[in-house]
């Protein structure tokens, strides 16, 4: 199958944005991926579920290859594939129940109809088998056909009935879920943030921001925000929290360990959560989690379910991104830059041993429970796209 021109243009534009990192952030990436896949299901011609699954898998692999570090792309593709399989299984189960019911009703009828003789039945069966064999073996027929052979109009009708069901599930299970994900996490804030506590966070995360602001509606507490050099995202985060009336203090990254004994909880955002319960988060997250582990301070991670990935990180650089070192060491300092090698990683990998609890939009779970959440959201056949 080929993409319609309008969809092909949209896919090319999205791929370009991913390659050049014009679109950054799990939420925006996930939302646009879901829109493209919904349009792909809606506008393309497909004849059965297997053909659709193959098409979505190929399209998803193309999007993932554009920016492998944005794990949200692959996560949304896997969610869509699971929805397609579940809708197909439900339709098949309903069809089997109908067939069983019709068979039982037919067996109870008292009307006796004239049946074909055994010779005529055998001849028809042999002719049907010969026709199927010829169609499956004819290379010219397979070459010219747009899809698998459909025997009757009922099969066509049942196949195309799946399209609106799949689109409806994508709208309800993925796109609507993305729009309410921040509210689902923020609603749990008062269960974890208590009065007069000192909370430490790092970087700028919309999920953590709304989580803390919601808690501030009923609790009074203090927040320490690490500045997150060299991007200094912590400054922007501190401004947002202070504007919401929260007592906020900005600290340098080097002061994290020294300030940790005063801290009651650490609240982190996430870029992705891996299958082993590990975390990919903004640079400095490993430092703050390790310091919290040393001082026995609980580490809470606010993350959405669409950030859960069935992939593993075999080392700390597997899903990392290295950006321009200009903010660390200016290019104008040529005498120094010629003699040193400067690396500026954008993310940190945080081991599951350093995380106490994940707070997601449907509840909370420890790192050891992440594999169950992944099994609930993805099909094992789609682990590798």
Automatic annotation (TrEMBL):
Pfam families: IF-2B (PF01008). Keywords: Cytoplasm, Initiation factor, Protein biosynthesis. The keyword Protein biosynthesis applies. Residues 93-117 are annotated as: Disordered. Residues 105-117 have a biased composition (Acidic residues). It is found in: Cytoplasm, Cytosol. Component of the translation initiation factor 2B (eIF2B) complex which is a heterodecamer of two sets of five different subunits: alpha, beta, gamma, delta and epsilon. Subunits alpha, beta and delta comprise a regulatory subcomplex and subunits epsilon and gamma comprise a catalytic subcomplex. Within the complex, the hexameric regulatory complex resides at the center, with the two heterodimeric catalytic subcomplexes bound on opposite sides. PANTHER family: TRANSLATION INITIATION FACTOR EIF-2B SUBUNIT BETA. Belongs to the eIF-2B alpha/beta/delta subunits family. This is Translation initiation factor eIF2B subunit beta.
């Amino acid at each position: 199958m080929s993409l319609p021109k309008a969809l092909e243009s949209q896919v090319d534009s999205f791929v370009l944005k991913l390659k050049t990192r014009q679109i950054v952030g799990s939420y925006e990436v996930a939302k646009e991926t879901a829109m493209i896949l919904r349009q792909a299901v809606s506008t393309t011609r497909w004849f059965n579920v297997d053909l659709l699954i193959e098409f979505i898998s190929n399209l998803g692999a193309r999007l993932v290859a554009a920016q492998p570090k944005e794990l949200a792309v692959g996560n949304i593709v896997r969610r869509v594939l699971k929805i397609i399989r579940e809708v197909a299984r439900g339709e098949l189960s309903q069809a089997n129940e109908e067939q069983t019911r019709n068979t039982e009703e037919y067996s109870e009828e008292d009307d006796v109809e004239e049946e074909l003789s055994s010779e005529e039945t055998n001849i028809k069966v042999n002719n049907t088998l010969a026709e199927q064999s010829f169609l499956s073996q004819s290379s010219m027929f397979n070459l010219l056909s747009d899809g698998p052979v459909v025997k009757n109009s009922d099969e066509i009708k049942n196949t195309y009935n799946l399209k609106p069901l799949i689109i409806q599930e994508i709208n309800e299970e993925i796109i609507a879920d993305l729009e309410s994900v921040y509210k689902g996490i923020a609603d749990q804030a008062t269960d974890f943030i208590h009065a007069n506590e000192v909370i430490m966070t790092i970087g700028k995360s919309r999920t953590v921001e709304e989580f803390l602001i919601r808690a501030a509606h009923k609790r009074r507490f203090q927040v320490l925000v690490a500045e997150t050099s060299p991007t200094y995202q912590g400054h922007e985060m501190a401004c947002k929290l202070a504007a919401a009336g929260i007592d906020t203090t900005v600290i340098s990254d080097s002061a994290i360990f020294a300030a940790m004994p005063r801290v009651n909880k650490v609240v982190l955002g996430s870029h992705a959560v891996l299958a082993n319960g590990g975390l990919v988060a903004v640079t400095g997250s490993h430092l703050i989690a390790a310091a919290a582990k040393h001082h026995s301070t609980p580490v809470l991670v606010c993350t959405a379910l669409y950030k859960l990935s069935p992939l593993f990180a075999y080392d700390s650089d597997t899903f990392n991104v290295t950006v321009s070192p200009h903010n660390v060491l200016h290019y104008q300092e040529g005498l120094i830059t010629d003699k040193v090698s400067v690396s500026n990683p954008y993310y940190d990998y945080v081991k599951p041993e350093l995380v106490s609890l994940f707070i997601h939009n449907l509840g909370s779970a420890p790192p050891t429970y992440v594999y169950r959440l992944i099994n609930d959201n993805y099909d094992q056949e789609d682990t590798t796209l």
